[in-house]
Amino acid sequence: MTKSTRLVQNLILLVFALYALVPVYLVFLAAIRSEADLFSGPLTLSWPINFNNFGRIWSEAGFATFFMNSVITAVSVTILVVLTAPLAGFAFAKMNFRGKEALFGLFLAGLVVPAPSVIVALYGNLQALGLIDNRIGVILPQAALLMPFSVFMMRTVMQDVPDELIEAAVMDGAGLFKIFLTIVVPVVKPGLMSLGLITFLFAWQEYLLPLVVFQTESLKPLTVGAASLQGRYGVDYGGIAAAGLIAFAPLVVLFLAMQRSFVRGLTAGAVK
Amino acid sequence: MLTTRSAYLFLAPSLALYLLFVGLPILQIFGFSFFDWDNGIAGDFIGLANYGRLLADGVFWTALWHNAIWVVLTLAFPLLAGLVLAAILAERNASVVRWLGAIYFIPRTIPLVVAGIIWGWIYNPIFGLLNFALEAVGLGGLAGAWLAQDNTALLSLNVVGAWTFFGFCVIIYLAAIQSIDPSLYEAASIDGASWWRKFRDLTVPLLRGSTLFLGLYAAIEAMRFFDLVWVTTQGGPGYSTEVLTTHIYKSFFLVGDFGYAATLSVVLLIIVLSISAGAFALLRKS
């Protein structure tokens, strides 16, 4: 590679790193500044770091509650998906049964379904079930909307389980569910981990469902809380920035800590 | 492969959830679209009248046009950026790949609601960083109220969408490049091929499958994205960032016209299913 080619390449890598990071840096900067010097002065960190914005948002604007709500919803959705999707993935990867192609096609079609289309009818159904303004009314549909992706990913993961392992267990007379728990699950643990992480990420980021289902302030998650701050706290930029940071910092930390597992999950459905 | 009826038991929990909360509503919107609705109550059966209205609805065509523009921009910018970045990273050492891969993907971990707020500030006409930067390099004449002008709003939002998406493209392309037989590149190097030649004649053609996958993914997302528009412009100014999902949302929650919202939903669904059917046919051919 010539020197100039390498220089141009490094420049491209750098420009996109800045594109990715500058907005994140700006929100961090705004969150730790006092309102007076928010966007005036140089764009460098000032010491001492001022945590007033976080304290104000956390206790006065209800973000302690929003945070807990995000945790409750995202964890519930994740548990629900991780308990159900692997079973279906196992069936599609390792079993023959009537209607297999059609059922798999049904899940595949769900990959592209737009959530706003579903909501037009789902909203009335949730009302009829008494699930409007109820956590269950967000958790179940959210898990359902994530199901096609999850089943698809789990099928890919389960295909890597050696058939001989399963056949040997069947010979020994073990039941299918026991085989799944004792033989398949230990082998696909990394895949389950990836599924859990990605589900958690998507559930935490969800905006539309909680926006339409929750009316009570104390049930709303961070995404809805942060969006409504814009209107209510219009010019409290430091506060809004702190709220934004609270809404995404856990995800960034989780991603950086578990990068390998995330990437394995994201590529599981794509490369094959 | 086990031939067994217990398969249905394994499928039951996820299938039940999926059918109840996604499958059933999809069937219902088809039904809804044939009725005249008044304040959430179904009135007369009106056949295809809602579809006739849709054809004459200028906002529908504007929204569809914006979705189409979004598809093209997404295919052109984040996909290409992802491909080039992945091809460059493929020849760097593992820790560089790990760090830059993480940095590029960070925007995807940020909820679109928050992304919208952050970029709203960057685009702000009074204190926004973008205008400030333009003035600093002597291009102050280009400064503007990016999200509040109808000629720049959609494009400005697309830059935000690309921001959250290009890192995903890098990760997918990188995984695919790493599965290419390295001897192909070695052979090309021995023949004296330049970096550009190898990129054009080896990397791009060998990554065709990933490009199709990402292209399909991008096109579907471009047809059905909602959060980013809703928290920034809500389709405005005027209808300059209106997309199909915001039109659906407004018809449903603001106007209360369930029949028309359902009709728009059916049409959107048919569009995304057709796009995926087309892409699958292409995939099967290659």
How would you explain this protein's 3D organization?
The complex is a heterodimer of chains A (272) and B (286). Chain A is mainly alpha-helical and 272 residues long. Chain A has a single domain, classed as MetI-like fold (Orthogonal Bundle), CATH 1.10.3720. Helix content of chain A is 76%, strand content 1%. In chain A, helix 2 (52-59) packs across helix 11, helix 3 runs antiparallel to helix 8 (176-205) and helix 6 crosses helix 8 (176-205). Chain B has a single domain (48-285), classed as MetI-like (MetI-like fold), CATH 1.10.3720.10. Chain B has 14 helices and 3 strands. In chain B, a hairpin with a 2-residue loop joins strand 2 (35-38) and strand 3. The two termini of chain B are 27 Å apart. The interface between A and B is large, with 97 and 97 residues.
What labels would you give this structure?
heterodimer; A: 272 residues; mainly alpha; MetI-like fold; B: MetI-like fold; 14 helices; transmembrane (chain A)
* Quaternary organisation of the protein chains: heterodimer
**Mass-distribution shape of chain B:** globular
CATH C-level class of chain A is Mainly Alpha
Fourth-tier CATH superfamily name of chain A: MetI-like
SS element count, helices of chain A: 12
How many strand units of chain A?
Answer: 1
CATH evolutionary superfamily of chain B: MetI-like
| Radius of gyration of chain B using CA atoms only | 23 Å
Q: Specify the structural class of chain A.
A: mainly alpha
Considering residues with a beta carbon less than 8 A from a beta carbon on another chain, report the largest interface and each chain's count.
A-B, 97 and 97 residues
Strand portion of chain B:
under 5%
Element pattern of chain B in H and E:
EHEEHHHHHHHHHHHHH
Mean pLDDT over the residues of chain A: 89
Element-by-element helix/strand order of chain A: HHHEHHHHHHHHH
At the fold tier of CATH, the topology name of chain A is MetI-like fold
Shape estimate of chain A:
globular
